[in-house]
């Protein structure tokens, strides 16, 4: 069950922790979204960063499948709905000011990024310039119909 | 040197990668900010999520010290400027659509969170409720003058 009370501010966290056993992220911002980080549960690799509205959060908690809110498409985005590369959620964390959640996930297919890489962070910024530091797991043309 | 060209959209990434050796995150959004994730370079623990404007990004790249933009205080936030718990940046990554950066850092003092925990994600959401899953490294009252 999810709490329906407003999310705590940073300064209320201690009080909330002492008298509540549930927490709801701070969907009270202007866009009603919080940031969501997905991290590989086994390797610790940061896979992607997306957003959640309250509905995405509640479905994620209820189903243990990662559901985000696509700001571009303005609708729920059940990760893997098109590619099949769903994320099984192994653990959920909420940060100190409750505006970011962290999901530890098992990434089906081994690639979280729509570009075909294991992680969306496949480009490293170095003094020598940008370097692609990962290998593609799939070709997006083979996975997504609209290219 | 940082590129001054506009950041690429997701669909332009391949082209950009083939003819450019620099990249600038997408500061073109309404607030001019991108999301920044700090991850412990040694352990892979996700420490915190914050934001950067162009100035914070450029200073971070130039100095290898994590600099964010505080949305609450509406100014640059040189991480550790008050607590001393600076972040030495070991690697910088930009995600596929260039609206999030990932920093791998060495966290001085062992605590990234202003609440005194190693990570801001010290609360886990479980079927039994919220559980604090970390030990405090410091007491915020001892570190921050304004409590």
Structural commentary:
Two copies of one chain form a homodimer. Chain A is an alpha+beta fold. Chain A is 14% helix and 31% strand. The first copy, chain A, has three helices and eight strands, in the order H-E-E-H-E-E-E-E-E-E-H. Chain A has helices at 13-19, 54-63, 140-143, and strands at 34-40, 46-52, 67-70, 75-78, 87-94, 100-107, 123-126, 129-132. In chain A, the strands form three sheets. The first copy, chain A, has a four-stranded mixed sheet with strand order 2-1-6-5. Chain A has a two-stranded antiparallel ribbon with strand order 3-4. In chain A, a hairpin with a 2-residue loop joins strand 7 and strand 8. The N and C termini of chain A lie far apart (40 Å). Residues 1-19 of chain A have low confidence and may be disordered. The A-B interface holds A 10, 13, 17, 20-23, 35, 37, 39, 43-46, 48-49, 61, 91-97, 100, 102, 113-115, 117, 120-126, 128-130, 132-133 and B 10, 13, 17, 20-23, 35, 37, 39, 43-46, 48-49, 61, 91-97, 100, 102, 113-115, 117, 120-126, 128-130, 132-133.
